[in-house]
Amino acid sequence: MINKGDDRIMLPAVELYKALNKAQQQKLFDELQLAYDKLPKSTCKNCARCCSIGSPPAFFIEYINMYRYVRDHLKDRWQDFLSKSAEYFYLELVDVNQKCPFLGDDKRCDIYEVRPATCRFFGLLSKQEFEKGNLNQGLQYVAKKLWEDHQIKIPDEIANSKIEYCGDVSNSTGKPVPKKELGIIIGELAKLDAYFFPEQLVDQEGTMLPYPVHLMNTVLGDGARARKLKIMKEYADHQSRELLDPIVARAAKYEF
Fold first, then answer.
1. pTM of the model
2. What's the chain's average pLDDT?
């Protein structure tokens, strides 16, 4: 989704590695893991329904943690991840077939060890807590604005999509986790992002973007968002990838 914070957290590879070094020197990845460890262990039936409706937002500290994991352990998957992430970056809102680029063909997460907190939270809340918010209201607003401002038609299947409560997730405590406890963990991750960006930006959730969006901000740089609306419109109007395919090919050549 187009996010107001995108242009303020675009870090080219050189700056990204400075952030990685800072995180390592100040042991921020250790603090990230400590925050994750406060969550109970959970299991599910691996239906992948939650992974098939998009890639959830992640803090910047989570993104660079994922980046180094892919760099160090999944070199044989670089091209696949990059190609799928580039497609997702541009077509997330106009192609009903888009899903999280890190979801494998076996319906398992290829980066499970470094999945973001938003993935780890899924299924931990009670059904009552989960259903309190209107989770698809934001997509409907984005669809309305894209049509009014740019005449880009978002498919109804996407605009009206909704993350349903999943009762197939169980956790080691045997009971739901209070929303307040998850909020505390979110606050801890936000504090880690404040090592890299102004607190005001972090407080506005401006550093929370889906992993593929974070990644393409690094890979494609400043021109990524500038081309986004044009590519979305071309695909929405004509199902054409003429503008997109050369960008996907270039992104696939990136080396972590």
1. 0.93
2. 92
